[in-house]
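Researcher: Here's the sequence for the chain we discussed earlier.
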Amino acid sequence: MNDKCIDFHLGGDRSDISLNNILQFATCDEEVPLLGYENGVKPSTTFHEVAENKSFIPTANTCLLQITATNTISLEIALPDEETLFQLYDMAFLNAYFGRK
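Model: Thanks. This is the structure I predict for it:
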């Protein structure tokens, strides 16, 4: 489900979010460097199982150029409704705290 959020944002379907917002969230760069990233490292997305009572807000590791999104492999923890999930991603992509605040 969360990969759907990222695809939705990348597709430009969220009016307040641009690809630059997502790139800046993941890398702290406003644009891709002219010569690319060091050693061919490319921005990536990983998924981890969300623990009970934890947040569904995606986080970023700007050193690894990586967005970490939550997933609910087990059926014990339900995803928030779609609009709430999109709002969490919007908030993360538009703030300067990398989803940690």
